[in-house]
Design a protein that fits this description.
0% strand; 2 domains; Growth Hormone, Chain: A; disordered N terminus; 19 helices; mainly alpha
Length: 400
Amino acid sequence: MTTPEQSAAQAADRQTPTRNRWTAVASVALGTFLLVTAEQLPIGLLTGVGSALSVSEGTAGLMVTVPSLVAAVSAPLVPVLVGAMDRRLLLLGLMGLMTLANAASALAPDFAVLVASRVLVGVAIGGFWAVAGGLAVRLVTTANVPRATAVIFGGVAAANVFGVPIGTLLGEFTGWRIAFATLGGLALVVLLALLTVLPPLTAARPVRPRLLAEQFRNPGVRVGILATFLMVTGHFSAYTFVSPALQSLSGIDERLVGPVLFAFGLAGMAGNFVAGAALARNTHRTVLVITAALTAAMLLYLLLGRGPGSGAALLIAWGLAFGGVSVGLQTWMIKAAPKAVEAASALWVSVFNLSIGLGALVGGVVVDSFALQGVLWLGAACVLVAALVVWSARTDGNLR
């Protein structure tokens, strides 16, 4: 008699690729690039939207908060609702939803309709990322999974470096509606790319609520989820306020903050691919090094980044370390739950998005209640605890 676990393992073995589909990997990376750009673009459009639709900038900030929270809920919910649906069709549908949502944003007659369209963006982000994050195991051979995962998450880093700044400039010169319309057009292009190069992706093991709950009995998954919560919360509690920190603590001129943050993003892209190469050799050691490096960079910035040169250099080191977080933790989840990659990835994406919002919220409370340095101490402390959590899993053979 075959148990459900054995059936799942046999199905997974049948779906292990015998050749690499790098064009499919690239199309998924384009999807993650577009989704992250769409999620964060309103940060640069708050003033224009607020003026046009007669709302305050604080209220306009709901364009960022709402999709992040919806994505956190959608990440585990969408895979459950679609059951055994071909993941190729699911990704196509979600990218189609992204196209329609951005078109609705561009045409929104008032702020309520605009926020409603951003809810749809959140659904697309959560569902797409939950599936795409663990898709490398379906598109390339086993030896190339870490590299392909790095390419997919390279889209996230590229969105922060190129997508959001370019989209913001477009909005400034042509208007925020044109910026959203352009995103919709790009989503349609990505949809056509996915349609052309993605192979059929039948679900090896449909995600059910029980399967999601079972993941918490897996020690490796528990460590990955806790480490994600601590690292992402810690990073965003501090990084959300990095602009005032660069100016008040490091003495960097306001006009130079943008170029320094651009360098941070470039370092993050480099860190993503460096981590991807290292993960192929040893997952546990690489994630441990990432957490230790991130802790050190944040502490050193706090203690030694009191001048423009040292502040900029240490922020770039911070970006290099954080660049490996997404690919490192996603690879961790793949290795920790090889028979339930999609379920574990869905939980991970949910916690990641919740932690972004929580980090910014807690950071704001700390900044308002204490000095600006307090949020940097908090961020470093969270990441240090994450390093200890990761170190505790050193005996897990799956994570080698």
